[in-house]
Amino acid sequence: MFRKILVATDGSEYSRHAFSAAVEMAKGFGSEIELLHVIMKHPHIMASEVSAGVDMTSMEYEAHSKTAMEDTMKGIDVGEIKVETKIVHGYPSQEVVEEAKKGADLIVMGTKGHGPWAGAIMGSVTQRVVSNAPCPVLVVK
């Protein structure tokens, strides 16, 4: 039923829950997982300029992304499940939807993530993905 499961991560605990749920589903369906992290573009800031008051280079953004993915997967037994990791640059909701259009049968993501609105009922990125996704979206608490 679900050959390819796309899991969007920002490294938060909600992303870990989503990844864990995706792994369990993948084991049951024999699916593969793509773990995606988006390095966010800010409309007024270049990727090599200031972000949250801290100067970060492109290499530092890439290292942060790899850490976010490692944190998401840490301690979760994937067994024989194939997990591909991918880092892209852009606006998170748009990039998740675009990546899903490349063949995902299901998107799994957390209800909330890091950021100033982490306490909101459902994160704005999650809401936009749910509204625009080309496939089902499982939102995990």
From TrEMBL:
Organism: Youngiibacter fragilis 232.1
Official protein name in the record: Universal stress protein
Subcellular locations according to the entry: Cytoplasm
Family to which this protein belongs: Belongs to the universal stress protein A family.
Pfam families: Usp
Keyword check for Cytoplasm: yes
Domain of life: Bacteria
One annotated Gene Ontology cellular component of this protein: cytoplasm
Segments forming domain UspA: 1-141
Keywords: Cytoplasm
Database matches in InterPro entries: Rossmann-like_a/b/a_fold, Universal_stress_UspA, UspA
